[in-house]
Amino acid sequence: MWTHANRTGQIRLAGIAGVVASIAWLVGDILLLGKPVASPGDHPLLNGYDGMAGASLAAMLSASTTRLAWGALLGVLTGPLYLVACWHLYQGLRPARRLLSLPPFLLLITGFALAPFAHGSFFYWGQAAKVIDASGARSAELDALPGDLAGVLFLPYAVLLACWVLGSVWMAVCVLWCTTAFPRWMCAVNPLVCVPVGALVTTLAPGPVGTAIQGAQLSIGNLLFFSLSTVALWNVRPGAEAHRPTPVPAPSAAGPAEREVPSV
Predict the structure, then answer these.
(1) pLDDT at position 26, please?
(2) Are 30 and 212 in contact (CB under 8 A)?
């Protein structure tokens, strides 16, 4: 697997790319959804929406157009860094057979390839909500618009989350049962575990910090994921046999009959 002297540096840089992308997406989430939640009394539009759609609209109505634009663009423009970071994960899994190491890579990279569309779409959703709210006019068509946009937005989210769940389970099994460059504890480090940890962080964060990161569950989870994977592969060396089974010595050429018999 390790065919070039600079492969360790490439793997480190690829892992850092995932960390940088996660930080950029975290800042983007703060710009998109980090304002205090709007009051339904001040925004009658919110009275017609419940659940996730209503909560997201309530958060974005307080943000300016410029803030929404940069929040979306930070995720879209740094999205390719996540694809580089998935290559970093594949290098950690690659000592295992390709039949076992390739599927989690393909699943995870598919999810991360879809993520920029979902993240960037929040700008259009937020802008539509702001325009409808500012118009003061109510109609069936205008009231349905945020919901229509939400349906398109959450479909890619559902697919990418499904890819992350399947890829996470496969990656965990591969690290736990196969020969990989990852230490065994990495079987518990994947999006399926890290994203709920990110959600817990956003729930427990106090005051203004909690408000700022209220929509950043995925970004915080990915930041944890790629930070730990980068640490785990930081000292992987070209030609290293790390985490490989210890080879069993071959029998002596002299055969069992000529081996020395210990005295009694």
Answers:
(1) 97
(2) yes
Q: From residue 6, give the alpha-carbon distance in Å to each of 2, 96, 116, 162.
A: 9, 21, 30, 35
Token pair, residue 112, equals 């991360």
Query: Could you tell me if 55 and 37 are in contact, meaning their C-beta atoms sit under 8 angstroms apart?
Result: yes
Distance separating alpha carbons of residues 180 and 184, to the nearest angstrom: 9
- 89/77 Cα distance (integer angstroms): 21
Per the model's pLDDT, the better-predicted residue between 215 and 3 turns out to be: 215
Helices (H) and strands (E) in the chain, counts: 8, 0
∠ CA 149-77-72 to the nearest 5 degrees? 35
Question: What gap in Å lies between CA 76 and CA 114, rounded to an integer?
Answer: 10
Dist. CA 64–CA 60, nearest whole Å: 8
pLDDT band at 263 (very low <50, low <70, confident <90, very high): very low
pLDDT for 240: 45
For the full predicted model, state whether its pTM sits above 0.90.
Answer: no
Reported confidence tier of residue 248, pLDDT bands at 50, 70, 90: very low
